[in-house]
Every structure is written in structure tokens, then in C-alpha cells.
Amino acid sequence: HIAPVNRPGARDHMSRRLINGLNLHGWNARYTRPRLHLSTEHRNFGRAWIAQAGVRSGEVCIAVNPGSRWAPKNWPIARYAQMCHWFRKEFNAKLILVSRDDDPVMRDLFRRIGATGVSLLTAPPAETAAVLARCDLLLGNDTGTSHVASAVGTPTVCIFGPTAPGLWRPASGKSVVVYDHA
């Protein structure tokens, strides 16, 4: 099922709950969507990394984050492989597989989709954010990477497992949540 980010009846997002808690204790805080501002150095890093990955101006570049530290959150790797093949077929997309480290889940996806037009990104958080800011889309599980992509303005499709999307979804207006509400 695909749910809009602010679907009716959704519980308040965790960030709104935290802001409301501050206000109950006398703070004068207001909610704004999370936004990461990148330094010139990091924007230059992102631009150079994308160029080194072989993504030319006008080409579609899609980041894919197939893993998480909590396995029940992970969408099946075979489904990620199907989406990667579809991205290539429909959009001739360059793919960037994103992971916090040399994750076996990412390596499995890499083996399933082949190396042509695929780059692996295992950079520190600020550099990862800079590269994600240069992508046209991020497809990923409910992880910090999805929130970072959302916060730098990259459209995000975030797949939820057992966690509550109303509480934990990426907060950008460019984010879509996919979940099974059964």
C-alpha cells in the first residue's frame, strides 16, 4: 500500500511530539520540516563523487539503500533487485547502492543486478548526504539514510516494515511511504 505522507488519522510524527513536549515545558518552539544545509565543501564533494561515478548531466540517478541494522525492517532483496532492473529498463538510470559500511545485504544486491551503471557508496554521513542531494530519488528501508535524503530535498520512497510510519516517516513533502497495514 502507498500512503501519502500526511494521511488522515495518522499519529503525530515523532518530531512534532518532541516539539510539543518542549512547549509544554515553557519553550517557544515551532515545527519545521527537517532540512540539512550542506557546506560548499560537501556540495562540491557530492558533485565530484557523482561525476566520478559516471553520471552525466541529464541522466537519471537513483540511490538505493537496501539494508538496515534491524533485519525485520528490510524489504526482501529480490524485490530491490526487481526495482533496480525496472529503474534501468524504464529510465536508463544510474544506480548508487548506499550503505553505512560494507554491508552483505548491499553486496548481495550488487551481485543480483550486476556492476554496469552501479556505484557503491559507503561514505561518512556528511558526504553521503552530499551525494544523496545530487540524486533524483532514493528508494530505501526505514533507516536514517531515508531521513537524510529527505532532509536534503531528494524525493524519497521509504519502505516500512514493523515500525509505525505515522511516527517515523521521512518528514519531507517529497517523501512517499510504502507499508503493509495488515
Annotation keywords:
182 residues; alpha/beta; seven-stranded mixed β-sheet; 7 helices; globular
Summarize the structure.
The protein has 182 residues and is α/β, with parallel strands linked by helices.
Please describe the topology of this protein:
Elements: E1 2-3, H1 14-24, H2 40-52, E2 61-65, H3 77-91, E3 94-98, H4 104-113, E4 118-121, H5 125-132, E5 137-141, H6 144-151, E6 156-159, H7 165-168, E7 175-178
Parallel strand pairs: 2-3, 2-5, 3-4, 5-6, 6-7
Antiparallel strand pairs: 1-7
User: What does the radius of gyration come to?
Assistant: 17 Å
The chain-level structural class is alpha/beta
**Helical residue percent band:** 25-40%
What oligomerization state is this entry in? single chain
Task: Give the mean pLDDT.
Answer: 82
If helices are DSSP runs of H or I spanning 4 or more residues, what is the number of helices? 7
Backbone shape? globular
Task: Describe what this molecule looks like in 3D.
- This protein has helices at 14-24, 40-52, 77-91, 104-113, 125-132, 144-151, 165-168, and strands at residues 2-3, 61-65, 94-98, 118-121, 137-141, 156-159, 175-178.
- The model is unreliable at 1-10 (pLDDT under 50).
- It is globular.
- The chain has 182 residues and is α/β, with parallel strands linked by helices.
